[in-house]
Write a structure and sequence with these properties.
Structural class: alpha/beta
Largest sheet: 8 strands, mixed
CATH architecture of the largest domain: 3-Layer(aba) Sandwich
Strand order of the largest sheet: 3-2-1-4-5-6-7-8
Bound molecules: 3-hydroxybutanoyl-coenzyme A
Radius of gyration: 19 Å
CATH superfamily of the largest domain: NAD(P)-binding Rossmann-like Domain
Oligomer: single chain
CATH topology of the largest domain: Rossmann fold
């Protein structure tokens, strides 16, 4: 199957980035949102990122315009009927995600269509089971910022058809120009299973007063050649996303390193979610 008609559910931080990647790859993209306001915010996010790509010399103005022309926003999910690939990037709420998959199952007519979730750590099998076609459901997990980070995890549940995972892996590499890795449906897949305990450890270090956030970040940038330190990275990922991911990895594995630090929970309770709200551990 040649994938040409795609959709993304949600246009928050990740959904907008994923929609941009698909549109820049020449695909027709419908972005499904819950309200006109959310759609306008998602569209603005994509336009800002495309403008930055042009400014950075990664894209010509004409390519940016062509990408925009391939994107359409809707608040009516039934418009996704003819889609061949749908990537769900709604908020990290299991019930919301399950209901989206159940609705997609009713709405999308093509039996060959592939349904994917960009969840950072929730079990893919639970979304697959909300549909009548679990063998065509898998994880396609991008990294923030999606237009920049090369990696994509292709996550198979115990019921995913291996042929579907292979086709998606090839699509990620050949059409999206990204680097695919295949992961199993385990808590945190590959990257977050390693990254989230690390971010939690850094927050615990800050919480204990062992070092300042600036010194923790400088340590990992200058001492381990990371592009940014863990406290700044937690702000970039979003502290709510970090908390959800940590909690779900901890719940399933009991890994003490993934136990969410109290400070992380308090920051989220305070609405200090990182870059996206203008303040997290740092101010933006
Ligand atoms: N579109 C296309 N390219 C862009 C762009 C855009 N909108 N914005 C920037 N770029 C390009 C730049 O041209 C540059 O490319 P170059 O190195 O070839 O010149 C590159 O991206 C870096 O951009 P900048 O120099 O403007 O930005 P910084 O140097 O400040 O880097 C960063 C910013 C890319 C965020 C970098 O700090 C980084 O990689 N940080 C780590 C991010 C990371 O680890 N993300 C993963 C988080 S985990 C996750 O998302 C999973 C989830 O489930 C929790």
């Amino acid at each position: 199957m040649v994938i040409a008609r795609t959709a993304v559910i949600g246009s928050g931080l990740m959904g907008a980035g994923i929609a941009e990647v698909l549109a820049k790859s020449g695909l027709d993209v419908i972005v499904s949102e819950v309200s006109d306001e959310a759609a306008a915010a998602g569209q603005a996010r994509i336009e800002k990122s495309l403008a930055r790509a042009v400014e950075k010399g990664k894209l010509t103005a004409a390519e940016s315009e062509a990408a925009k022309a391939r994107l359409r926003f809707t608040t009516d999910i039934t418009e996704l009927a003819d889609r061949q690939l749908v990537i769900e990037a709604a908020s990290e709420n299991e019930e919301i995600k399950k209901s989206i998959f159940a609705r997609l199952d009713e709405v999308v007519t093509d039996e060959e269509a592939i349904f994917a979730s960009n969840t950072s750590s929730m079990p893919i099998i639970r979304f697959a089971q909300a549909t009548s076609r679990p063998e065509r459901v898998l994880g396609i997990h991008f990294f923030n910022p999606a237009p920049v980070q090369p990696l994509v995890e292709v996550v198979s549940s115990v019921l995913t058809d291996p042929g579907v995972a292979e086709s998606v892996t090839e699509f990620v590499s050949q059409v999206l120009g990204k680097t695919p890795v295949q992961a199993q449906d385990r808590p945190g897949f590959i990257v977050n299973a390693l990254l989230i305990p690390y971010l939690c450890s850094a927050i615990r270090m800050l919480e204990s007063g062992a070092a300042t956030k600036e010194d923790i970040d400088a340590g990992m940038v200058g001492g381990a050649a990371h592009p940014m330190g863990p406290i700044a990275l937690a702000d970039l990922v979003g502290l709510d996303t970090c908390l959800f991911a940590a909690q779900s990895i901890f719940d399933e594995t009991g890994d003490p390193a993934a136990k969410p630090p109290v400070l992380l929970s308090r920051m989220v309770d305070a609405g200090l979610l990182g870059r996206k709200t203008g303040r997290g551990f740092y101010e933006y």
